[in-house]
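A student in our group prepared the protein record below, which I am reviewing. This is what I was given:
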Amino acid sequence: MTHLFDCYVMVDWSASSTPKKGADSIWYCVVERQGAKLVETALHNPTTRETAMHDLADRLSDLSARGLRVLVGCDFAFGYPKDFAPSIGAQNWSDVWQRLSVMIKDGADNSNNRFAVAAELNRKISGTTGPFWGCPKAQQNEFLESKKPYMNPLTNEMRLCEQRISGVKPVWQLLGTGCVGSQTLMGIARLEQLRRHAWLQDHIKVWPFETGLNANSLGEITLAEIYPSQIKVQAQGNLPKDAIQVRTLARHYAELDQVGEMAPLFAGDPSLTDDEKDSVVREEGWVLGVGRSDKDQALDWLNSYLRAPNDIYRKSQEMIEHDVDVSGFDDDMQDVAIRMIHACGDVDVGVDIAYSPGGATIGRAALAKGCPILVDVEMVSHGIIRKRLAQYNPVVCTLNDARTPAKADELGTTRSAAALEFWGDWLDGSVVVIGNAPTALFHLIQGILDGRFAKPALIVACPVGFVGAMESKETLIALAGDLGVPYITLRGRRGGSAIAASALNALAKKGITQ
């Protein structure tokens, strides 16, 4: 599978007039592809725009020198609505960028003249207070007001791409929550300097202006406009939202590229007319990933999703094998690891799979002899594919045995743990599969250590949850030598019936074909 990029740099810009760190300041995140893995190599918070641009220039020149293809996403507009360029005597986006680069004065301490530049542009365009607006009252003058003017002297309030994004504010607004007008003035000026940088000028292309609305002629370094609010983010410790957004976006685009789904993002909206495409490429620009509406995309997925089981399996296997290096697993464990990863849809679980050397081989041999399969909950039982059990191995779950509730009360434990008391003669030489209850795993370990329970041939342990799951699995790993029983497990809190059953299915039939 071919990737468009090897590195993803996402930038949250700022128009602050003083050096600043933390929330509402500049953040950038770098994610690199290193072999089959995606690795975050930087999450930085420069205090000024000048420092940020020096950092980015150094980093991009290094990445370019290493032969890596880089996507740089910036969270401000790369262009203005149609007819802005001719209104200031410019021909296209490039003229606009060059003019702003000359007009904007951005000091090393973040002091800048953005409101004065906006006023001068208003004077040129209309001779009144528009189209730009929004400034501190102390900076109001005859060509710039703090409030929105009665009428925009230009035809268009929004760019074509912004008309497809709900809740976005016009690029003319310079001040106020959620607006990017000031960031755009400052950001365009700085990007023009970056693309003219002596180390970078032959390596950078700006999408879609220099590439068209496609992924066929991207640069070694491609600059693209992004809209962070497209992706929902979750709190991460004490990090401000800006930092979380650049981290999330960098990972998001890297993962899309990892599975070959990045190219369509560069196409824009396929419903654009030829005249509209011309405006986008010549003057307005576009936001990466903005295209058809959510409803249209949903309808497309509804009509095109894979239906045939063999096709689904082959595609999943291809994606897992491409994204996960299983060469570090013993030969007998590689198929088991792949199936566990497939079951949860998360390639990152691979690093948490732990096992006894030769454990998978021992488990397969026991299954081939027809040994019982003992499970802690019915969900694990339901996940085991019976036709893969060549010896029609019995699958036993005693959780719902009529004697279990009373035994749980007697022992002062959960029903899942108490149910093990009724495994009896099945346990000796069996394969035990625990996919839910940490208490069941603890109880099994203690029973074997005490000599009350016979030894199974293999323990597949994937209990899940916040209380006891991690601890029970680490106890199994640490005491495996004392138990004298091999194991396969998934460290940490993750786990569940589906993952546990998938490991058993892989053991039962190596090399899944249907």
Remarks:
- The mean pLDDT is 91.
- The longest strand covers residues 27-34.
